[in-house]
Amino acid sequence: MRKFFWWGLLFLVIAGLAYGDEQSMLFETLQQKDLAAFKSLVEKGADIDGFNENSLSPLHVAAQQGSLDFVEYLVEKGADIDLGDGRDSKTALVFAAENGHADVVRYLAEHGADLEAGSLPTGETPLIWAAGKRQLEAARVLIEKGADVNFTTVIASPLLRAVGNRDAEMVKLLLEAGADANLSPMMGETPLGLAQERGFEEIIQLLQQ
């Protein structure tokens, strides 16, 4: 009986090592943008929703690096489109938005990604991330697809992020989409109040039009 136990334990260890190697190779082929090798590993059973050492799934990494072909393949194979990463619960849409990959943002939005999925710790949405990172085209796509320009967390909104960055183009985009210059989060001031406090005259003029 003890002999069978040790053989079984050895099998599990070997299987675990093989799984780990397979997953590591999956992320390596993704970083190298070798789609053929990536597909081969998936067909052999690699976990398309498994995390790497940075607590990211393949879809997170593909969206982060703007690899639309990988994103398309993963979504078609059934990857969890709204899976949050293991650190901040950021979704693939957040990674695409904050890094300015508008084509990936469009694809994910058109395939059912949650436009208001909030990341930790305070629930910033993809549009808040795009505004905060000055990603104008990604923000434009999110708005076109229906993202809420007046979504507020405890401390932030898309317009507050744009005002804080003194990003006139982003402010214009958000205002044209219906953002409210006098809407404040639970803890914080209004976009107009922030612009006035910091003396951003050109932003104040936009907000008061």
Count every helix, treating DSSP H or I runs of 4 or more residues as helices: 12
Spatial separation of the terminal alpha carbons: 82 Å
Q: What's the helical proportion of residues?
A: 55-70%
CATH architecture: Alpha Horseshoe
Radius of gyration, taken over Cα atoms and rounded to an integer in Å: 21 Å
Number of strands: 0
Using the alpha-carbon principal axes, give the shape. elongated
Provide the CATH top-level class.
Mainly Alpha
CATH homology-level superfamily: Ankyrin repeat-containing domain
Give the percentage of residues in beta strands. under 5%
Order of helices and strands: HHHHHHHHHHHH
Provide a descriptive summary of the structure in words.
The chain has 12 helices and no strands. With about 210 residues, it is mainly α. It has a single domain, classed as Alpha Horseshoe (Serine Threonine Protein Phosphatase 5, Tetratricopeptide repeat). The radius of gyration is 21 Å and the shape is elongated. About 40% of the residues are buried.
